[in-house]
Specification:
Layout: H1 31-41, E1 46-47, E2 59-60, E3 76-79, H2 87-99, E4 105-111, H3 117-126, E5 129-132, E6 150-156, E7 164-167
Parallel strand pairs: 1-2, 1-3, 3-4, 5-7
Antiparallel strand pairs: 4-6, 5-6
């Protein structure tokens, strides 16, 4: 299968492939989306995948802290993980932290790729909720909207799957009427 876009002559090319790739994988969460998640599912104690320049919680794990091997604590963690190949590892780590009883709740902002193994094997059977955002996210500092839909996945040690699926409004309205 060729993932591409038709050029002016109607031939399928690979131009669009680059649209889905980025050298940057630590996009900052829109503030109002984070505040909505904190008010709805928090209070959030830890940002589990933070760039220190834009950590959302007072306590955070940066790349040097290695969130895939460090404890996420016992409270409520937010995680907007690096995407690409690392995202499934962060989803698995969040579930492991909750399912082993250490972490109360994990809230993840991830690309909505429901056909993938991580969704089929971890998210859908174990999350208590998956909140599908109503439109694509524009991360802080980005020139354009993300080229993929996103969702918020909730793992909670007191509630388990199968996931309750919710379809929401546009993310940029969060916090305006709460």
């Amino acid at each position: 299968m060729n993932h591409g876009q038709r050029s002016g002559d109607g031939k399928l090319g690979t131009k669009i492939h680059a649209h889905f790739l980025s050298a940057k994988h630590d996009w900052e969460t829109p503030t109002n989306l984070y505040h909505w998640a904190d008010a709805t599912y928090g209070p959030i104690d830890l940002d589990a995948a933070a760039n220190p320049a834009h950590a959302k919680a007072d306590v955070y794990l940066s790349e040097t802290d290695d969130a895939l091997t460090s404890s996420w604590g016992s409270g409520i963690a937010w995680c907007n993980p690096p995407y690409a190949n690392m995202m499934p590892k962060f989803v698995q780590r969040a579930w492991d932290e909750v399912s082993n009883g250490d972490l109360e709740r994990a809230i993840l902002l991830i690309p909505c790729r429901t056909e993938t193994k991580i969704f089929q094997d971890v998210v859908f059977p174990n999350a208590c909720e998956v909140y599908f955002l109503g439109k694509r996210i524009k991360f802080v500092g980005a020139n354009d909207y993300a080229p993929f839909p996103a969702c918020i996945v909730i793992f909670d040690k007191h509630k388990s799957g199968p996931a309750k699926l919710e379809f929401g409004r546009d993310w940029d309205t969060f916090g305006r009427d709460e």
